[in-house]
Write a structure and sequence with these properties.
The protein is of the alpha/beta class and 423 residues long. It has 15 helices and 14 strands.
């Protein structure tokens, strides 16, 4: 494989000068990809954004930190990214955008976008809500969010998804994808040491960020139901987030509930000390790293069928699928707690699922193939799998105009969006 310059661009901070990786599946994914590229002999550069600018090298990865501003104008630092890329040879450089939030169009380079999840399947909040509340209906807000995702896909040569939800959604929006779309599921390492058989399934783990869309409050309500009925059950909430303080106060004085935090490298060890893992996400979920880590540690899992989770868990085969309600979660956890034979079978199948389909070795093999490609090869692929039909294109344009006008969007805006779409 011919060595290339690999540039990873992240809108968030991935790693600091001491080599500490930020907590977050996207950041962990980016750093693991950087390490893989180094092991393959490529020259790896990371451009990240933070409050303080810096330059350093960690594990043979050259990291440049640009100063980040929270103002709306600076949300997409296009000029900073293009200035950074101008010092590299486009013919021997692969640019990887770690999310659609930082994608800029750089036609001279071979560009890849990592698509982690569908993030607009949940009502907007915070600054996004303050901007979108000017629209009369949530349909307008969702239309704008979809256009943002499509605009990012139009600006790159290849999109790598971590689940199969995004490719399926994309096909419902446009018959011909705006770029090459591949799926490389997320991964988890597995426990290297043997995990002794569990005598009982009484230790429950919720290892998620403490935010509403991750189901923290639903899990809190389910915990109350379970503790009232099963005296041997104990529950651990592992993670941080804006809702943590309120949740700690909610269970103040409850000895069977504890709150912990851990580093990324300790995930398997923490999961191995528990029996049941619950993933009750409400929205914005890709191939859940927390879910894979729990299965890799032979935990019996209870998960809501949201986003990429539905690509992993098959009900009653390698886990239990629940509704995102406290009653459903409590019922599924109780079933595992009172039926150790079922829990043991599900955990064994879950472990095999990770080992065969979501392993680190498989992830490395798939990414190694992409890192050995170039722009000409991708263009050849697009010529084979794309087509241009004037009648179909005309119908698409008319359908988009009609649909948008029903939602109150001007016809001029839709025509402009269609004209700027790259095929």
């Amino acid at each position: 494989m011919k060595p290339q310059n690999i540039i990873l661009i992240s809108f968030t901070k991935v790693v600091d000068v001491a080599g500490n990786v930020a907590k977050g599946s996207a950041e962990v994914y980016a750093f693991e990809l950087a390490k893989l590229a180094v092991s393959l002999g490529h020259v790896v550069n990371v451009l990240q954004f933070d409050l303080t600018p810096s330059k350093f090298t960690v594990m043979d990865i050259n990291v440049t930190t640009c100063q980040w501003s929270s103002s709306l104008i600076a949300r997409r630092p296009r000029k900073l990214v293009l200035d950074y890329l101008s010092s590299f040879d486009a013919t021997s450089t692969i640019v990887i955008f770690c999310s659609e939030a930082v994608v800029v169009r750089a036609d001279d380079f071979y560009t890849i976008m990592i698509q982690h999840k569908i993030g607009f399947d949940y009502p907007p909040s915070g600054k996004s809500l303050s901007i979108l509340r000017h629209f009369k209906s949530g349909r307008y807000a969702h239309w704008l969010l979809r256009q943002g995702v499509l605009r990012a896909a139009n600006s790159v040569d290849c999109t790598v998804c971590v689940d199969y939800v995004y490719p399926t959604w994309l096909k419902t929006i446009c018959y011909v994808p705006p770029c090459r779309v591949l799926t490389i599921p997320n991964f988890s390492r597995v426990c290297e040491r043997d995990i002794p058989p569990r005598e009982s399934y009484s230790r429950v783990l919720f290892a998620r960020r403490m935010v509403t869309r991750r189901g923290c409050w639903i899990m809190a309500s389910a915990t109350r139901l379970l503790l009232a009925k099963y005296p041997r059950l104990c529950v651990t909430f592992a993670g941080e987030g804006p809702e943590k303080r309120a949740m700690v106060e909610m269970f103040s004085g409850e000895l069977r509930v504890k709150f912990i935090e851990y580093e990324n490298e300790d995930a398997l060890r923490i999961n191995a000390t528990h029996d049941i893992a619950v993933i009750p996400s409400l929205a914005s979920e890709g191939t859940s790293l927390s879910l894979l880590e729990a299965m890799a540690a032979k935990c019996a899992v209870v998960a809501a069928p949201v986003g990429g989770i539905s690509n992993i868990v098959i009900d009653n085969h390698n886990g239990l699928v629940c509704e995102p309600t406290a009653e459903s979660i409590a019922a599924k956890v109780a079933l595992l707690h009172t039926n150790p034979a079922l829990a043991m079978r599900l955990s064994a199948c879950g472990y095999s699922t990770v080992l065969e389909s979501f392993s680190y070795t498989r992830w490395c093999r798939l990414w190694a193939g992409i890192l050995g490609e170039n722009k000409s090869r991708v263009r050849a692929h697009q010529e084979v799998f794309s087509y241009d039909c004037p009648l179909l294109n005309s119908l698409r344009s008319e359908q988009r105009c009609e649909s948008a006008q029903r939602n109150g969007v001007s016809k001029i805006a839709v025509i402009f969006a269609c004209k700027t779409r790259r095929v």
